[in-house]
Amino acid sequence: MTALQPAHAGRCHCGAVRFTAHAPAEITVLDCDCTICARTGYLHLIVPRHDFRLEAGHSALTEYRFGTGRARHLFCRICGIKAFYAPRSHPSALSVNLRCLDRARFSAITIEPFHGQQWEAAAAALAARSRPA
Description:
By secondary structure, the chain is mainly beta. It has a single domain, classed as Beta Complex (Metal Binding Protein, Guanine Nucleotide Exchange Factor, Chain A). It has helices at 35-40, 119-130; strands at 7-11, 18-22, 26-32, 43-48, 52-56, 61-64, 72-76, 84-86, 93-97, 108-114. Strands 6-7-8-9-4-3-10 form a 7-stranded mixed β-sheet, with no helix packed on it. The protein has a 3-stranded antiparallel β-sheet with strand order 1-2-5, with no helix packed on it. The longest helix has 12 residues, at 119-130.
């Protein structure tokens, strides 16, 4: 985990699934317009797997896959909330739902649109953006 990045606590609605994600205090999240994200209001914060820790609730998680089946959408089987998942766009990372994080330690949040309805075309730009400079 990156020591300089604050730890942000997160959880599903009922609290059965709890986690910690390390991310900068100033972040940019993606507001995807694909069918699943638009219907659930998901805001993506991509976090390297080594900066994520599931604190509780592994047994409360259930999985849903669709399309290519490469993304692992994980939901709390009690309250139905998807607090994080394994996206196909970032195999070595997790996408954390900003709406499930305690925002107290963030100093700035920028929300950018992502055109997930045209995922294949937008994926290359997303991958390029994620590479270190």
